[in-house]
Design goal:
The longest helix is centred in the N-terminal third of the chain and has 20 residues. The protein is mainly β. Strands 10, 12, 13, 15, 20, 21, 22 and 26 form an eight-stranded antiparallel sheet that branches. Strands 11-14-25-16-17-18-19 form a seven-stranded antiparallel sheet, with no helix packed on it. A four-stranded mixed sheet has the order 2-9-8-5, with no helix packed on it.
Length: 339
Amino acid sequence: MKKYLIFNMAALALVFCLGACDDGVEKATGITLDKESVSIIIGNKDKINVAYEGSLDVREIKWTSKDENIATVTQYGVIYAVEEGSTEIEATWNGTTKTIPITVTDPVVLPPRKASWLFDDADLLKAAVGNPLQYGRGGSGFDFKAECPTTDISGFSAVAGPSSENGAIRINKGYYLQATNNLTPNGGGTKVNEYTMMWDIKLAAEFYKKWITLLQTEPANTNDGDIFINGGVGVGTTGRHGDVSPDEWHHIIASVKVGEGGFVSYYSDGVLLGTWAASGEHGTIDISRFALGNNFLLFGDEDGDDNTVDAAEIAIWDSALDANQVKKFERLLGKGVRP
């Protein structure tokens, strides 16, 4: 009986010490954070440290982000910058919440478009930015001569685009769209020698690995086109690279610089397929053929290398976008933002 009483008294003493004295360290009564605000570059991370006096289990602190599309935070206060913008991170403990403003910046600057066609309007030729398009048809390799504008619009139709809010135009074989250039000549001379062009396109399975012309810089359509799809994307005589799969929408981008140090870089859905220089690892091509004059053709070729294609958008910038700018463009599109 005496042993039993001694054991219970010792157990009670131990419980009392664990619950109250905590080895002589008092429990914390509040927390402070080592930062009043955080500015962070997209893709990077930072950490908010917690200071307190006494005993505290940091796992009891609840971390939350008011907008996880801008920045996220872990249970230990590590911040990950997701997208450009501003939000707040909150740290809550013992009924008290500390708030820290977060600013996420992006050093990559995407310039505004200089020309854009969305094909959402009843007037399929209407421009969102720049000049309206014109319907055209034919070429030196067709039974009917090239004419633009043409009154024969049977080769064009409005079709469903990538979403209910984003329509598209279908351009059939032998027909094309002519654009009147509103870009200021650059890179020396009278033509636009530096630019980026984007095509949001879809091709049917029956036209997979068949010729489709994206760009013809000769408005009279008397020679070969300049940018093609035939399974992959092609530049001049260097062959096709990558794979433009059928029955899916793809963003095809050409970043062009004509002149000294000239190149053409091709991207499919943000992925770099390759860069072709006037003379380099991919062979020799005539870079000058890619310069844009007062008028140029979209989806036109003189001898029939222009099978049916759907286009939901075409956009042009007056500079040669680099890989980081193209990635930003794709990232923003993926978030429903049209940059």
